[in-house]
Structures are given as C-alpha cells and as structure tokens.
Amino acid sequence: MCVLHLMLQGFDPPHQSETRTIYVANRFPLHGHYIPTVTFSNGDVFQYTIWNFVPKNLFEQFRRIANFYFLIIFLVQLMIDTPTSPVTSGLPLFFVITVTSIKQGYEDWLRHKADNEVNGAPVYVVRSGSLVGDIVRVAKDETFPVDLVLLSSDRPDGTCHITTASLDGETNLKTHYSVAETSVCQSVSQLESLQAVVECQQPEADLYRFVGRMTVTLLGEEIVRPLGPENLLLRGARLKNTKEIFGVAVYTGMESKMALNYKCKSQKRSAVEKSMNSFLIIYLCILLFEAILSTILKYAWQSEEKWNEPFYNQKTEQERNSSPILKFISDFLAFLVLYNFIIPISLYVTVEMQKFLGSFFIGWDLDLYHEESDQKAQVNTSDLNEELGQVEYVFTDKTGTLTENEMHFRECSINGTKYREVNGKLVPEGLTDDSPDGSTPHMVNHNKNGSQKNLKNLFFPIQSVALCHTVQISYDQPDCMVPGSDPFSHVNGFSANHMEYYASSPDEKALVEAAKRIGITFISSNGDTVEIKTFGKTEKFKLLHVLEFDPNRRRMSVILQTPSGGQIMFTKGAESAILPFATSGEMEKTRLHVDEFALKGLRTLVVACRHFSPEQYTEVDRRLNAARTALQQREEKLQEAFNFIERDLQLLGATGVEDKLQDKVQETIEALRLAGIKVWVLTGDKHETAVSVSLSCGHFHRTMNILELLQQRSDNECAEQLRRLARRIKEDHVIQHGLVVDGASLSLALREHEKLFMEVCKNCSAVLCCRMAPLQKAKVVRLIKTSPEKPITLAVGDGANDVSMIQEAHVGIGIMGKEGRQAVRNSDYAIARFKFLAKLLLVHGHFYYIRIATLVQYFFYKNVCFITPQFLYQFFCLFSQQTLYDSVYLTLYNICFTSLPILVYSLFEQLVHPHVLQSKPALYRDISRNSMLSFRTFLYWTLLGFCHAFVFFFGSYILMGEDTTLMGNGQMFGNWTFGTLVFTVMVITVTLKLALETHFWTWMNHFVTWGSIAFYFIFSLFYGGIIWPFLHTQDMYFVFVQLLSSGSAWFAIIIIIITCLFPDVIKKVFYRHLQPTNTQKNTLARALFHTCTFTLEPSHSDSNRLAADCLCWTKWGLDFSLFTL
Length: 1125
Prior knowledge:
This protein has 38 helices and 37 strands. The chain has 1125 residues and is an alpha+beta fold. Strand 20 (490-491) and strand 21 form a beta hairpin. Helix 18 (614-628) runs antiparallel to helix 19 (634-645), helix 28 (836-873) runs parallel beside helix 32 and helix 30 (899-908) runs antiparallel to helix 34. The relative contact order is 0.08.
C-alpha cells in the first residue's frame, strides 16, 4: 500500500456513451479496452492561473470605461502633436493598472494557496494506476477524496456510516453498503486479487442519483449485483463510526458530484462600479461635445481672414497644403486631449485604495470577533464592500449557519402528563426536582401513592424511544478497568460510559441520549437484536422489521419481539402522521401538549405502539416479505403494507426537542426584515425539520399564513397549485405569507412556470426551500438576481453544498463552521457566526456605501470644476488650444492637491453613529436601491460643478478685466497669473466643499483638509520661486508670489469662495429643518440626547424645559426609544 498525492484528476471518455466501464484495480482485459488518459484539473474556485493572469487581468481592467478611455488618449498623444505630454495620461494609467493587478493577483493567490492545501492532501491508494479504477483506503473521520463505490469495511456486514454535512447540509449519519461478494475483501491481498467491473452512468450533478451494476468474477463465475446511491461514497463526505473502508474510484476531479455542483468563479462587479461606468459614459459624451464644439468654433472663428493667419503666427507651407479633413481630425483630437481630465482616472486609484484599506476595518472590528473559536471576520474580496449596503435578498443555509448542529431534549408528554428534564430526571409540570442526589428513581412521580403498574406505564414510553430508532453506537476502548465498577457498564469489552451515538436523524440521537440520562440506555444493536438497560437491568429484544422513514408517511416504525415472546411495534413521527391512526390513549391532552411544544419552537415527535397477536403478526410478516421481494412496483406495495400495519395505534406520548440555534439568530433575522431585506432559507434538509427551524428562528412567524408547494409530480399539477396559491394570497386578508417549496417542485416550477412562481414568491415575506441540491440553490439565487427589478442578493452558508449559491450571489458570505472550509475559501467575506451578519450589513455596509457614493460624486464634481474653466478659456484665446493651467498643476491636481481629503473621508466618515444604525435597522432602507448614486443625485453634483466652475472663471475674469491694475506698481496680471488665480480658488473651494459634507471629524480629517490647502500654497511658492533648469520654459517663475502680493487677489479669492459655498450652506440648513431624512432625524436625536444634562432632583423649571424639549423632539418625529442607547 502506497501514499500518493491524489490531485483530484478526471478524464473525458472517448465517446458519448451514456455509461462508463471501470475495471477495479485497473485490471483491464487483454483486448478491446480503453485506458483513460490522466489529465490534471483543478476545481475552478479561483479566477486566474499563472498563464492567463496577464491577458485576463488586462481584459478585466480595460472593461472599465475610464481605463479604456485613457488608453485611447495615451495612444492619441503618441501619434499626434497635442497640448500636453503623453506622460500625463500614460503614467497615471500605468499606475492604476499596476496597483489593481497586484491587489487582485494577491487575493487570487490566497485562494490558490488554500485550494492547494486540499488538493495536496495525501491519499492511501492500494493499487495506483490512472486514478479512475484505483482502490482507495479511507480511515475514520477522513473525507472521501473522490466518488467511490464501497467495496468493503472493517465491519463484518460491509457497511459504513458517513456524514454528508458539507454536501447537503445534513449532519445525520447515513449508512452505506457494499455488495456481499466484495464485503469479505478486508485485506490488501484480497483486494489485489479481486476481479470486478463496475458499469455506471456518466457523471451528473444529482447527489441523490446513481445507477450502475458490478460484475464480480468468483471461481470463473460472473455474479452481477445492482448499484445505487447507497453504494456510492461522495467526495467531501466524511467517514464516521467505521475504522476504515476500501472503495473503487468512479468519478474524480471535476467529474465528482461535488465538483459538478460548483459554479465557475466569475468576476463580481458592484452596483456602484456599474453606476460609475454609466456616469463615465455621460461624461465621455460631455467631453466629445466640448471637443466637437471647440473644433467647430475654432474653424468658424478662423473663417475671418484676420484670425486665420495673423502676422504673429504665420503658417508654414506644409500647414497651408495639408488636408482640411486631417486638420479637423487633428484639432478635434487635440481638444480631446486638452479636456481629457474631465474623465477622472484617479477615481479608480482612490476607489481601489479605499476598498483595500477600508476592508481592514471589518477584520479589526471586535464586535465581529468570536472569542470561543478565536476567529475574526475576514475579507477575501474587497471589491464588494459597498455592496453590503445594498442587499435586498439574503439566501441562507440552515444547518451550521442558523443552527449549531446540536439537538437537546427539553420536554415530553406521557399518558397526558407533561414532563420536563431537570438534571437527568423527568419532572412533572408544576413540580420541582426535590429528590436528593444519588436517589435511584430517575423519574419524579407526581403520584406519590402510585402503584408499580403506574410507574411501569411511565417508563414504557421512554423504552419505546430507546428502541424505535436507527441509531448506531461507537465504543472507545477504556484505558483500564476500575475495581468495583458496575459490571453492567461493559458490553463486549467496551465501556458503556464511553459510548458515542450516531444517528440517521439528529432528533433520534437527542432522544436516545435523553433516555440514557433518565436511566434507560440503548447499549447495542447487532442486526438481529437490540439491547437496552433499564435502571441497570439488561433487556434483549429481537429486531423483526424496520419500517423506514419516508417523507410521504412522515413516520418510522420497528417491530420487535419482547423478552417474554410477544410482538410489538413502536412508531414515532409527526403529529399529523400518528394521531389520525391512534385509537386509544390520551389523544386530546397530547395534541394540546404538542401545540404547546411547537409554540416554544421545539421539534415535536409523537410516539405510539401496537401489540400484535400471533395471527396478526403472521399476516404482517407475510405482507412485508411479499412487498420487499417484489420486482415490479415495489415502492407502491411497500406503502400499502406500511399503511396496513401502522394503524390501530395506542398513543404513548410526545417529545419536544430543541434544535439549538446559534446565538441571536432570531434577532438578526428580525433586524434584516426591518431593514427591508427578504430572507430565504435554502436547505437540503427534510421539510419537517426545515419548517421547525424556520419557526424557531423567527424566519416564519406563528401568525404567518404558510403556503406549501410540495411533492408536485407534473407540470400541470405544479401550475395549478401555483395558481391556487396566488388566489389565496389575494383572497386571504393576512398581512404576511410564508412559502415552503421542495426541490422537486421547484424544478417543475422553474421549467415552464417561472413567472407565476416569481409572482407568488414576491408576495411572500419569507420563503423556505427544502431538499435542495447545491445547483438548485444557485438557480434560485440566479432567478431573483436576474428578475426585472435586478435586486442585490447575498448568500450565506458554511458547507461545500453552499459554494454554488455563494458564487452566484452578488455577495457571498462564508460561515466558519463545522463543515470544512470550502464555503469560506469561495466566499467574498467570512464570519464566525450568523449574528455578525447584522452589523456587517447594517453598519459596515451602510458606511461603505455612503463613503464610496460620496467619493464617486465628489470626484466627478471636482473634475468638472477643474476642466470647465479650461473650456471657457478657449473662448478668450481664439480656440488655440492654449492651456489655462500650468502642466505641473494639471498633473498634481488629482494626485496631490485634492486626493488625500476625499480618501480619508471615504475611510472614516460616519453619517450616523454605529449604535443608531444597529438599533434602527429601518435606516438601511434610506440607502437602498443605490439611492445615493441615482441620476438625480448625479445631476445635482454635475450641475453644482458647472456652477462653481463658472463662478471661478468669471469671478476671476471680472476682477482682471481690461485695463485693471492689481499691483501696487501699476503692473497688470498675465494669462498664467489668471490661470493660477482660478486654480487657487478651485483648490480651496473643492476642499472646503468636502469639509461641508463631512459629519465625522477626526484628527486625520483636520490634518489632510487644512494640510492639503497649506501644501498647495507651500508647493506653489517653492515651485514658482526657483528657476528649474530641466524645464523648457519658466512660465510660472514668481507668478504665485506676485499673485499673493495683491490685496485685490486675496479679496477675490475670499469673495469667490463665499459665493460658491454659501448657497450650499443655505440649502443644507433648509432641507434639515423642512425635509429631514430619517437618518438626519436620528442623528439629531442622538446629539440632543448627549447634550441634555439633568440633575438628580430636577426643579420645576427643569421639568418645564424637559417637557419643551420632548415637544420639540416630537415635532421632529424623533423616536424616544433611541435614548435608551
């Protein structure tokens, strides 16, 4: 036996056959066989490889309008003579592309690293060949590396137990079987001599379907055995309660069912980025309009002879003979280059830095740190930070995401009396456990004078729970035997105190463990007998038949032979599946208790029994054997037999089990609902379990009208049910509806009735989808994502079965749970608990969206302010393409003079205090549907930029009109002084405009705001005060010093700034007093609360002042519950 690094490989068959033939241990026949080719194929959970990184990343980068635009401008500057140097466009473009590619490459490298840890895990292979057909050994608690057909295990019957939590979300134990002929091959030598061939279907994504057969050659005879899902061990599942198994690999790599349920990793783009691209297109149109208009006006102006070729600018012979069309195109491109700064390429640099630096705040947030597991929130993709503030639908897994995967027995009803468990004892309702420690009885009898028969009646329902199940037991070998220990505490050499139960249902495990605590212990099951210990007394029951659970009956039964020789059937199941078939027992009281348990959010089961006479059992045995050996219509015949047997039941009682939810799940879901976010639960679990958890976690309310779309078998039946549901929604005068749909019905609904299904879903406050395959989860997310409203979706899960929906949603959240790290590795963000989702969305999402929305609008505003004076200046220089600003100012405006204030603002701005956002989830609605980047808001900022630019230019122009002397010595200002004056006013105004928008001031905001203005003055004095030898011209020498020496210039600067900003101040005051938003109301409320000071014994005047304040706050519509923060 050797150790290989199994790299999860697969192969493509050479033909399109519907089946494939696999030779176990790669024992191929001598002629006419096909040996599969080994190909290396990694799961596509990452975006780049070392070979496609450069071309693919460049393609993604130039999908951005600004990047593509500046690439064109750079090429134009290289080809023709333009007013500015190619460096002014090429250098910023290179910087943006480089920074972004490094960031995205680093994030993808982290995903590669995590994926390689899984792909490089060692796997034991008995006989190596081409992987498909290899015999693989898997030990207890290991995951299956490929899809295997079980050959044998260390158990004599060749069975094994697995959990598929990372595939379908179910944590219960599942039993898988090997065929009888291979189950005896439990050693390497036996397996190497095994001659067998597996014929099975080609790979498909359905986790619950597998069709095949195995042909085993023994002593020259070929024996054919059928293979089904119970024989297939899926990659990603985990081996439990079995020391080791051997299996033959049938599907590997990207052909495994888990890999087929993965979605291809795609580049996600936020709604803000899409809005940016739309705005950039509008600005591109403005740019083209300005360039075309300037070109046309230039030629219109030059139509006059005196302006076409003035004496001081004579044309060369080449210019006179050049083509007019080429000259027009050349001038158009020159104007395009002159105005190109209206498209802010530095916007993308700032956005990338804001996203990258801002993502650290999520990891640093102590409120998102889980102390028990020592895990903090992590950001895998910082490109989607602002998308957290736009979520409209949350799709969540159930197991491990909403729950802790832990079941606890809480209460029960026995013979019409309700009991609760206290310290391992059943205490009747209304009584307390007052028995001393060490007392023998584990059940406190409310009837102190009760007879032994009554006590037996109390124990009997607990015995039924300990016997009616499919629980398996694992024993740990004790280190030593303790002298004087209980002789009954050891079974087959193992300690009963070290037993570990594994169950096919989490409820079963909780009930069996509860029975053990009470004193009735299930200690062994070896196929034919079941053994329990009742308060130290061992009892053996012969297991005659197991009537398995199925979703139609919603119950399961076991038929046993008692130690006294009688036959009895124990049955347990849902209330609706047991009570209609019960003929005796405390039915009304039990029904009432079941309703009480359900109101507490407990998962309920009803327990009953039936005694058989010898004649009755003979008929039962005959019917069951006939149905189980039928070759035709076996399932229908089994249902008939079960219905015949499970009747005339004696009701024993009911149980209430708590499916332990994660902390604050109910509060989190309610907060999301108040924020206007619809929550859908998508789970692979059973219908009853899913509904119970939805009720207990608050996803479904008790007052909701629950609609069901379950077990639809045809398109017509599904369509008719959907129409009935739609009518019920219209006719029922219920505020809220909830919808439950299973995977099979969902497939039919999405096939031809998608529109009708969407209509029903949109009218429901909560939707629960159960029995969902991983790809079905992704389809549901895509259905909502691509609906006409185009809502922003978020998917949250913790297992490999959630990866597809996490990748499909706009935002994917991985829970660091108990089901592996697949979801975390493929997610955009990872958190330790579901409760952290509330702060991640309501606080971080709110902040990120407001910050980046203001950043985008502000960038467009300040660039309009920057370029519009340049456009206006052309009207005063005969459209000669003369620049208004010096080239150094052109380069540094976006890089140095105005970059840091907006970056710091976008990192620290808080429009509302975080506590207010968490306590008032409805504030999340104020920013929904990308409201701060609406066309109306965009138009406001754009027009504001044009207005300020006109004030900058014409305010300076009026000051420096004809024959105006601004210097004490009579000197006049020149064109560079005029341009510098406009530039100075602009830098100060756009910086102060951002200061007006800032609500949360830190020392860093003050430093960069006033520091940027100071840096501009210091730099200009330094730049204009020295003759720089490497510059071709010294146009700016002493210009700034001369400008600042004029008192008129200072007066103009102050007047122009006030003229620009004073209307903004008036507007803000007007809107805050007459039309305040909910956010502004709550901000004011918190400010008033913190400024109020009251004495311990307020005077009469203090009381009057408090009443007046309350009246004022009420007028503003403020909520007083805020003051409890």
